């Protein structure tokens, strides 16, 4: 019988390299692909941890050669610009805190890459994500599960996958720890064995997010007041671009005790700051829900909810609205820095039930 063909995304890092090696050992017919997501002016750099540097592409090609599998580069600059970069910039311009990794997974790695898989006759797309896939035996529905290594789990950024996308996804390293992944890479003599992990926002040069946003928008923002929760002016900001809920550093004010960003008021060009307790909230609304592992519930249900990638899941009740397209989340204990634009992802027993995007509070409602 002819082996099943798998398109394996090879970023030039250790995780995707070992993912490819494991699938090779399992007898799959592999095609390695490295994504070119930025123009050549960025990709020529080999000294930064960007998403498609020349070094990364060469490392991916080297690993593919050692494994004896074909390798190609897929140019997706325009799609990445539209679905990831523009989304990132527009979100910050609107006072939201985006998550570009989720957008990239939804539209690029399990969108454009799946379409390329169809073109080369591949049944699956494999990545180096730390996550696991399962099947509900009763319903036959695909399940998205947390990784075995909770410290590296990436299921949060995969909540947006559809059942079709999840059914065609392979996560070969989801059952391994990071140390085991590196041990495997060393044993196989892969050049990526000791490469550091890439930064979260892979396309921001020198991790200067504010500078990147200003270059992209090509416009200087207007200064405005920094006010406390009672409206008292404490200082002046030089533009709201780049601030995020919960931020403490870079405020440029001194009031004798720490202050945090608690709201970004675009309408009045105000940055609202407060004490740590002012960040706490027991409720938020989410929209554009995707119930990845279950059918949309009709009644409120309990779950553990993450409101950002590194957040410890908190117990909450999710009350669905609009047929499951949106919901109100009520936390058992108040949570800090619930940021509009971020994703709230729901878990139950290690299974990702689904998730949605946190919306700004309505006028006069602190959520």
Low-confidence stretches: 41-49
> Total helix count?
8
Helix residue percentage: 25-40%
Give the termini distance in whole angstroms: 58 Å
Mean pLDDT rating: 92
Structural class by sheet pairing and helices:
alpha/beta
Oligomer: single chain
CATH topology name of the largest domain, in short, is Rossmann fold
- At CATH level 2, the architecture of the largest domain is 3-Layer(aba) Sandwich
Number of domains: 3
Shape: globular
**Strand and helix order:** EHEHHEHHEEEHEHHEEEEEEEEEE
Strand arrangement across the biggest beta sheet: 12-15-14-13-16-17
Radius of gyration: 22 Å
Strand count, sense and barrel status of the largest sheet are: 6 strands, antiparallel, barrel
- The count of DSSP E runs of length 2 or more, i.e. the number of strands, is 17
Secondary-structure topology with pairs:
Layout: E1 5-9, H1 14-25, E2 29-36, H2 40-43, H3 54-67, E3 71-75, H4 77-93, H5 100-119, E4 124-126, E5 131-135, E6 142-146, H6 163-167, E7 169-170, H7 178-188, H8 209-217, E8 224-227, E9 233-237, E10 260-265, E11 270-274, E12 280-290, E13 301-306, E14 314-321, E15 326-336, E16 343-348, E17 351-358
Parallel strand pairs: 1-2, 1-4, 2-3, 4-7, 8-11
Antiparallel strand pairs: 5-6, 6-17, 8-9, 10-11, 12-15, 12-17, 13-14, 13-16, 14-15, 16-17
Helix pairs in contact: 1-3, 1-7, 4-5
